[in-house]
Amino acid sequence: MKKKYLAIIFALMAIGIKTNAQEANSATVGLGLGLEYGGIGGQLAYQADDQFGVFVGLGTALASTGYNVGLIYLLKGKSKERFFLEAMYGYNGVIIVDDPVGGDIRKTYYGPSFGGGVNLDNKGGNSFWHFAVLIPIRSSAYRDQWNAIKNNPDFETSISLPFTVSIGINFRL
C-alpha cells in the first residue's frame, strides 16, 4: 500500500513538472515545525513553475528521524499571499510511551497526508511564511497501537488529532 501512495504522488509530480514547466525554475530552503519539515526540521523545495512544485522535508519526529516528500500546487492569487494544496508521503504519526515496567514505545508511522494553507511573502520578497493544515491518512498499525494504549488504564494519554498544523519560514535561493 505504501508503494501505491508513493507511485501516485510521484506520478502527479512528474505530470505537474512536465506540463507546467513554462517559467523560470526556483528553489527554497526552510525551517519549521510540521509534516512538511519532517517534524522539527528543514525543507528543500523546487518550484517548477508558478503553480507546481515538489519538496522534501527532513527533521526529528521525536521518536526518530522524520521525512516527507510531496507535491504542492499553488493557486492563482495575490502576489503576497498564495494559497496552496499539497499531497505528500512520509511520517504522519508518532507514538511515544515511557513505561519503566513494560518497556518504552517510540514508534514513527508513515503514510500519505493531504492538505492546504497559505504562503505569506515577507517584505522584500526574499522569504515567506508557510502555514498549513494537513489530514494524515494514518495506518492501521498506528490506529491499533493508539487504541491499545488509550484503552489501557495504566497509561495517561493525550489526544490523537485527525489533523496536523505546520508553520515555517522559507528562503528563496
Concise synopsis of the structure shown:
With 173 residues, the chain is of the alpha+beta class. It has helices at residues 2-20, 140-150, and strands spanning 26-34, 39-47, 52-60, 65-74, 81-97, 105-121, 127-136, 164-172.
- As a percent range, the share of strand residues is over 45%
Give the overall shape.
elongated
Radius of gyration: 18 Å
Ranges where pLDDT stays below 50 over 5 or more residues in a row are 12-24
| Biggest sheet: strand arrangement | 1-2-3-4-5-6-7-8
Q: How are helices and strands ordered from N to C? A: HEEEEEEEHE
Q: Number of helical runs?
A: 2
Distance between the termini: 36 Å
Largest sheet: 8 strands, antiparallel, barrel
What class, by secondary structure content? alpha+beta
> What level of helicity do the residues show?
10-25%
Give the integer mean of the pLDDT values.
85
How many strands in all? 8
Task: Describe it.
A hairpin with a 4-residue loop joins strand 1 (about 25-35) and strand 2. This protein is of the alpha+beta class. Residues about 10-25 have low confidence and may be disordered. It has helices at about 1-20, 140-150, and strands spanning about 25-35, 40-45, 50-60, 65-75, 80-95, 105-120, 125-135, 165-170. Helix content is about 15%, strand content about 50%. The protein contains two helices and eight strands. The radius of gyration is 18 Å and the shape is elongated.
